[in-house]
Amino acid sequence: MKIEARGIAVRLGGATILDGVDIGIAPGEFVGLIGPNGAGKTTLLTVLARLRMPDGGQLLYDGRPAGALGRTALARRLAYLAQGTQVDWPLAAEDVVALGRLPHAGRFGPADSAADRRAVETAMAAADIAHFAGRPVTTLSGGERMRVLLARALAVEAEILLADEPVAALDPYHQLKVMELLAGAARAGLGVVAVLHDLTLASRFCDRLVLLDGGRVKADGTPGEVLTDAEIGSAYGVASLFGAHDGTRYVLPWRRIDDQAAE
């Protein structure tokens, strides 16, 4: 499924959150959605997932108005991982992952077909949570719950995955593991969009970056094209260090520009 957003505008409480945003998402690419706090990243993700109706602009799925695709069909083709790790019910981790199969089963209940079981097991192994499959999610750490919720999204076996800060609660080992997982899934044909704050991870793993600032797309391109000293300085107000290791470019936000100017 290909997603096209054209001229998307969102206004909340008199404030403009998104202002004329154009973005396209295709299967087989890993897109990092970056930008400072309040730039509109989460809002844009919810619009792309059709969880929020924009105040202006047009959202297309495969070239057709998004509303033409029914809710069940959309739930099978697009998976959404929300920000945060709040889980209110003490379900076993495996049962939470199995909820990702609901769009296919059409009912509430544990996965019971061979395809469901295979999808759940594969997703749990990919997210490195198989060893606590039977534990209530309410007993897990924030990072462990995030991996359970990621596995639930992967179990959908959708064509597009929209993930809001999927590595924010994770330790360095699992940050790398999840980024490798998402990059590998994109290479296998999944379209992945992830809101990211770590510019080094974004630079290393993403095929493409979309930089939002003030509700508008400030830059859209390869990590090398987007993560320049000028773009980072303008959007984030920081000066960065750049380098390369094992043939991969990296960027390290190093100093606030206002501090630098004061010296």
TrEMBL record:
A GO molecular function held by the record: ATP binding
PROSITE patterns membership: ABC_TRANSPORTER_1, ABC_TRANSPORTER_2
SMART domains: AAA
Record keyword Acyltransferase present: no
Nucleotide-binding recorded as keyword: yes
Keyword tags: ATP-binding, Nucleotide-binding, Translocase, Transport
Domain ABC transporter as annotated: residue spans: 3-239
Family: Belongs to the ABC transporter superfamily.
Function: Part of the ABC transporter complex HmuTUV involved in hemin import. Responsible for energy coupling to the transport system.
PANTHER family found in the cross-reference section: HEMIN IMPORT ATP-BINDING PROTEIN HMUV
Protein name: ABC transporter ATP-binding protein
